[in-house]
Write a structure and sequence with these properties.
Order of helices and strands: EHEHEHEHEH
Radius of gyration: 13 Å
CATH superfamily: Response regulator
Number of strands: 5
Strand order of the largest sheet: 2-1-3-4-5
Helix content: 40-55%
Oligomer: single chain
Shape: globular
CATH architecture: 3-Layer(aba) Sandwich
Number of helices: 5
CATH topology: Rossmann fold
CATH class: Alpha Beta
Strand content: 15-25%
Distance between the termini: 11 Å
Largest sheet: 5 strands, parallel
Length: 132
């Protein structure tokens, strides 16, 4: 499992979903969780964290985001030397095989389909961490 002090960025266009994921993470013991509601905020927070020496260490991102989609954010992260190794978990309400395949090709570390439970989130976090 990731260390509890891991700096996590949760991105979803619905604030209620961000709050729900943040609550699940807090139940697991994580306290350092930041949220974003669109793709521009995600990119800005990644860059700000890097500038201040407090880089994001785990990104949990919805596929359907305004301004930049989750897949566009994944492509951005994997294309930049400073961010390419950040573990990336994609969340979506769609279970389309083509989407899953594209996310895997772009370098996603894991995929979660909504709705999900704290147990599912913990299992995915553990799986990603063990593969790193």
């Amino acid at each position: 499992m990731f260390p509890l002090e891991t700096r996590i960025l949760v991105a979803d266009d619905m604030m209620a979903i961000c709050d729900l994921i943040k609550m699940h993470l807090k139940l697991l013991g994580f306290e350092n969780v930041t949220t974003a509601n669109d793709g521009k905020q995600v990119i800005d927070l990644l860059n700000e964290g890097r500038q201040w020496g407090k880089s994001i260490e785990l990104l949990i991102c919805d596929w359907n985001m305004p301004i930049k989609t989750g897949i566009e954010i994944l492509e951005y992260v994997r294309a930049h030397k400073d961010f390419e190794k950040i573990p990336f978990i994609m969340i979506t309400s769609e279970n389309d095989r083509e989407q899953v395949a594209r996310a895997i090709l772009e370098g996603v570390n894991h995929y979660i389909v909504k709705p999900f439970t704290s147990k599912t989130l913990k299992e995915r976090l553990t799986s990603v961490y063990e593969r790193l």
